[in-house]
């Protein structure tokens, strides 16, 4: 088979990512959150109060993007910023009861959606996909480190 890696991996990954984002945004619309906001809300639902820097690392968002997402989530009363008692220049971020309710409702809902998305793909293939994705991510991280 004659194909380029760029087309087979690069373009295919971008297309898949865009389609996943589009369908998940569609299903998140009734909750008035986006996939970007969901990833932050989900991360916070798994944490106590954490610094914005730590949240940035855990949710894989740069600081500027995270600040915009947090501004929206604070406005929606899904999260709150709390003064950091150890560093007056920074804030801790915490999910609110409203945000926790949304996270508790959305988590199983999205599991159902992903069950539909992965319909027809057996567990072995899903595990291979997950492992290959992790290897690709790791290789990309190494390349990024080399180019710093």
UniProtKB/TrEMBL annotation:
InterPro entries for the chain: HTH_MarR-typ, WH-like_DNA-bd_sf, WH_DNA-bd_sf
Matching SUPFAM superfamilies: Winged helix' DNA-binding domain
Keyword Transcription: yes
Key words of the record: DNA-binding, Transcription, Transcription regulation
Residue ranges of every copy of the HTH marR-type domain listed in the record: 6-138
Keyword Transcription regulation: yes
Source species, domain of life: Bacteria
Name by which UniProt lists this protein: MarR family transcriptional regulator
Taxon lineage: Bacteria, Bacillati, Bacillota, Bacilli, Bacillales
